[in-house]
Structures are given as structure tokens and as C-alpha cells.
From TrEMBL:
Catalytic activity: 4-imidazolone-5-propanoate + H2O = N-formimidoyl-L-glutamate
Positions contributing to N-formimidoyl-L-glutamate binding: Y136, N307, G309
UniProt organism field: Microlunatus ginsengisoli
Compartments, as annotated in UniProt: Cytoplasm
The name this protein goes by in its record: Imidazolonepropionase
Residues annotated for Zn(2+) binding in this entry: H69, H71, H229, D305
InterPro entries referenced in this protein's UniProt entry, alphabetically: Amidohydro-rel (IPR006680), HutI (IPR005920), Metal-dep_hydrolase_composite (IPR011059), Metal_Hydrolase (IPR032466)
Length: 389
């Protein structure tokens, strides 16, 4: 056992749900971590002794960000696709095959190195938990390999064999679905906690509601929990399907009808709506109306969706700034969504908040208050707090 007393905290933002803004901000606070757990929170003047002390010199302390949606296992470059979109080209999911080809060609060592660099980049910006999806292998061996490597970095791994129908199967969609729900699930499933599907009738490459249902039910049968990519490119059945099947999260939610919003509000105890504003930024698309969701009582999360196609940014502070500027969230709502909200979308109670017994997954800001996360967009003020010992 090894304990650390954290003092000199300018503002302790616990995200424990208390207070009007749910941020549970504690003045004059100190925190003690023992190994990887929080064991004491209180007034600095009353802090107990510990093996060592870390003085934050007036900086704010927040829970580490929980990035609940990413696609980090890939090789290849699609910067030209981004440039084309900035001059008017539309995103339709077709570029996923480009990343698939490069990813299949990469060695295990190269994929591991690329993934390690991306996770390090996230930690350097305050992210302490990351969910990582497969989805650029799209063959039995390549999907299992992606998840095996991802599970070296996180326990939140997601099987996304149903990302798109790969080119060699486009003449036989039903055959590809048989593969995803059969042999591919058998070999990839043991390396995954979650199963996900890109349910998007507006894309010729992604999956319809009926196809997505089949994928999700097969995954559940295999012991995986459910997540859905839905309503990204247009109105569609993704949100309703996610709610009906009790998925932990439906992600994107860019195009929603009133019925979709009502369904999400009614499912607030089971299904979180995860918003990914970096995607709208990088695809020049309209932003989802985050304000409408919160006002309707929907639980939301914010995540990066870091991936080579629709958003190659791993910066949660950038997502917070976009959510505030473009989606109508307050800075407090945005921070809560990227910590406690995102933890909820992963059905985790041990991360995303600073409370007795939670993991000591912490981020420190080179600023006196969390407001600076949105007030100083693009400035790297957030980093993970590495505790000594
Ligand atoms: N929409 C589906 N999947 C990713 C994009 C993947 C890609 O284009 O490479 C997303 O979440 O936006
Ligand atoms: Zn995604």
C-alpha cells in the first residue's frame, strides 16, 4: 500500500452529481489516493498524513476523461478525404475500406505501436479510460487481431465487424452477415466486452435496422453487451433499436425525430445518447442539438470518436469546446458528459467521478477552474495526473 496526499487544489471538481450543475465542486479540498483508489476527500486543513504529497499549486483537479467511443486500431492515412470534405464532398462511409486495406497489411507490431502512440496522446490530454473498437479488419483473423491488440490497452473493447460490408462481400451482404454473426463473432468475441454495429440506411456500405438487429442479438447471445452507431448520416432506426434492445449507448444521434428524443428520454436508466461533435466538425455536418436532448431528460455522454475517417482528433477538451459552442451545452454539462456521463455509457461506476472508492484516475488543469477547458480552446491545459509510487 502506498498513499498520496494531493494538496494545493485550486478547484476540486468531483462530478459526483451534487449541486445544481452536478459537478460537486469542493472548495479548499485535498484528496488522498491509496494505490489506485480514492480513500479520503475533505478540507485541506484536516488532511491526514500520507506517504507522499503532491502540491498542485492552485491548479484544478477533475476526474480523468472517459473517452467512450474510439476506433484507434488502424493504419493508413485519409487526410485527402478530409480535405475533399472541406471543399464539399460528402461522407458516406466508403473510406472505411481504405483504412481496412492498410490495417490488414500492417504487422501486429506496427498496429501495436500505432495504437500505443494514440493512447499516449490521449493520456497526455487528460483521458484515463478509452473504449476501443475493431472495425478496420473486417475478416475473421483481422477483427480478432485488432481486439487482441486493443485489449492490451483497455478492458473496454468493442467488436465492430459490422462496421461496413467489406468490398469482397459486397455481392453477398447476407453472406457477410452470416460471417459476422458466426465465425467472426466466435473468434473476436472472447477479446471484446461490447458489440457495436453501424446502423445507417443512408450509407450503402453500412447496415439496415433489420441487419443491425441480427448482429446485436447474436452478440448478446455470445455474452457481449450492446452499443450502436445510429442516426449519424440521416434519420434511421438506430436510436429506436438501441432503446428497444437496452443498448448501453447509441452514438452520434445527429438526426433525431421527436419520437427518437422521447424514446431516449424514456430509456434514460438504460441507454445513453453519446454525442461526437468532432465528427460534425470534421465532416462539415450539422451538429446534433444537445440542448434539446438535455432539456428532454436524455442522459448524454461526449466522446472523441477518434478515427481516421470522420474525426482524427483524440482531444476531449476540443470536444467540450465544440459541445458548448455548437450544441448548446453549458461548460458544466459538457464536462459532466465527458466524465460521469461517459462512464455511465460504459456502465462503470468506478470512473468518471472523484468519490470514496472510485479509481484514482485524475486529470489536472494548468488553470484555476474547469471553465478554462472551453474558455481556452486549443490550448493544452489538461493532462493526466500520474501519481508517484
Ligand atoms: N460511422 C462509422 N464509423 C466511424 C467512421 C469510420 C471511418 O470513416 O473510418 C464513425 O464513428 O464516424
Ligand atoms: Zn464510431
Amino acid at each position: 500500500m502506498s498513499s498520496t496526499l494531493i494538496t494545493g487544489i485550486g478547484e476540486l471538481v468531483t462530478c459526483d452529481g451534487s449541486g445544481e450543475d452536478r459537478l460537486g465542486i469542493r472548495p479548499d479540498a485535498a484528496v488522498v489516493a491509496e494505490d489506485d483508489r480514492i480513500v479520503w476527500i475533505g478540507r485541506a486543513a484536516e488532511a491526514p498524513a500520507a506517504d507522499r504529497r503532491v502540491d498542485l499549486d492552485g491548479r484544478a483537479l477533475i476526474p480523468g476523461f472517459v473517452d467512450s467511443h474510439s476506433h484507434l486500431v488502424f493504419d493508413g492515412d485519409r487526410a485527402a478525404e478530409f480535405a475533399a470534405r472541406m471543399t464539399g464532398a460528402a461522407y458516406d462511409g466508403g473510406g472505411i475500406a481504405t483504412s481496412m486495406t492498410a490495417t490488414r497489411a500492417a504487422s501486429d507490431g506496427r498496429l501495436r505501436e500505432l495504437l500505443g502512440r494514440r493512447v499516449t496522446e490521449m493520456r497526455a490530454q487528460g483521458t484515463t479510460t478509452v473504449e476501443i473498437k475493431s472495425g478496420y479488419g473486417l475478416s475473421v483473423a483481422d477483427e480478432a487481431r485488432a481486439l487482441r491488440i486493443a485489449s492490451e490497452f483497455t478492458s473496454e473493447t468493442t467488436f465492430l465487424g459490422a462496421h461496413v460490408v467489406p468490398p469482397e462481400w459486397r455481392h453477398d451482404r447476407a453472406g457477410y452477415l452470416d460471417l459476422v454473426t458466426g465465425e467472426m463473432l466466435v473468434s473476436a468475441g472472447p477479446h471484446a466486452r461490447w458489440i457495436d454495429v453501424f446502423c445507417e440506411p443512408a450509407s450503402p456500405y453500412a447496415f439496415t435496422g433489420d441487419e443491425a438487429r441480427r448482429v446485436l442479438l447474436a452478440g448478446r447471445e455470445a455474452g457481449l453487451e450492446l452499443r450502436v452507431h445510429g442516426n449519424q448520416l440521416g434519420h434511421g432506426p438506430g436510436v429506436q433499436l438501441a432503446v428497444e434492445l437496452g443498448a448501453a449507448s447509441v452514438d452520434h444521434c445527429t438526426y433525431l425525430t421527436d419520437d427518437d428524443v422521447d424514446a431516449l428520454a424514456g430509456a434514460r436508466d438504460s441507454t445513453v445518447a453519446t454525442l461526437l461533435p468532432g465528427v460534425e466538425f470534421s465532416t462539415r455536418s450539422p451538429y446534433p442539438d444537445g440542448r434539446r436532448l438535455i432539456d428532454a431528460g436524455v442522459r448524454i455522454a461526449l466522446a472523441s470518436d477518434c478515427n481516421p475517417g470522420t474525426c482524427y482528433s483524440s482531444s476531449i477538451p476540443f470536444m467540450l469546446a465544440l459541445a458548448v459552442r455548437e450544441m448548446g451545452l453549458t461548460p458544466a454539462e459538457a464536462l459532466y458528459a465527458a466524465t460521469a456521463g461517459a462512464a455511465r455509457s460504459l456502465r462503470r461506476t468506478d470512473i468518471g467521478r472523484i468519490e470514496l472508492g472510485t479509481r484514482a484516475d485524475l486529470a489536472v488543469l494548468d488553470a484555476p477552474s474547469y471553465l478554462h477547458l472551453c474558455y481556452r480552446p486549443g490550448v493544452p491545459i489538461a493532462r493526466t495526473l500520474e501519481l508517484p509510487g
